Structure formats: structure tokens, C-alpha cells
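Sharing in case it's useful to others searching the archive later.

Someone asked me privately for the predicted structure of Ferredoxin, so I'm posting the question and my answer publicly. Question first, with the sequence:
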Amino acid sequence: MTYVIAQPCIDVKDRACVTECPVDCIYEGERTLYINPLECVDCHACEPVCPVEAIFYEDELPQRWAAYAAINAEYFEQPDRGQDHPLIAGLPHQTSDKKDIAVFAIRKEEAADVDRWFPS
Ligand code: SF4
Ligand code: SF4
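And my answer, the predicted C-alpha cells:
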């Protein structure tokens, strides 16, 4: 089993999860981040810090995002990881309401240098 990053991360990418992961198994694509299922140690550290609740234990993925288990895994089978998984690349642009994310102020300092939602 593994943790999976689903649709809410797309075009948000604040990278709070990357900071938490003890084994550095969360990788950045162009529009979203991906968890490598072969490297994830199921520690749960990333899930509670995601400001848009994009991270799920594989068994607990909402049905509407069930495909994201395969999307995360298949990303690491691509020859060019500079490109998003084709299903991600084909999605329309997604926006998240800043006020929904800003309540996670504890992440503000860590994310300030990389996140357009948390300007310094
Ligand atoms: S569950 Fe732990 S090991 Fe897996 S991606 Fe999250 S922080 Fe990394
Ligand atoms: S914390 Fe959530 S929104 Fe931020 S990069 Fe990780 S999965 Fe994406």
C-alpha cells in the first residue's frame, strides 16, 4: 500500500508534503506532485499537512479519484519525468480558493519560498 496524491493538488503544489516526507518519495511534476509507491513507507506524515486534502491512503481514495493510484504509479514509469502524467496534463486549469488554504498558517513559513499562495 501507499499514499496517493489526488486531484486537489493540481495547480496548487504548495509542497508542504515534501517538507514532511522522511524518505523523499514525493516528486514534483509540472502541475502536481506524485508519490512513488515503491518508496513510500506509509508513515502518514504528509497527509495531515496538505492544505487542500489531496493526499489519501490508497485504500481510502474517494471513488471519484480512484484513478489517481495508477496515475501516481505510472508517472514513475514514464521515461521523461519532466512531463506530467498524460491524464493530468490534459485536465483544465484548476484554481483553489486562497482563504481555504490560508488557515494552515503553520505551513506559511516553510512554504513561503516556493508557494504563490503564501507570499512572504
Ligand atoms: S506516507 Fe510518509 S513516506 Fe509516504 S509519501 Fe507520505 S510522508 Fe512520504
Ligand atoms: S501538500 Fe497537498 S497541495 Fe501541497 S504539494 Fe503536497 S499534495 Fe499538493
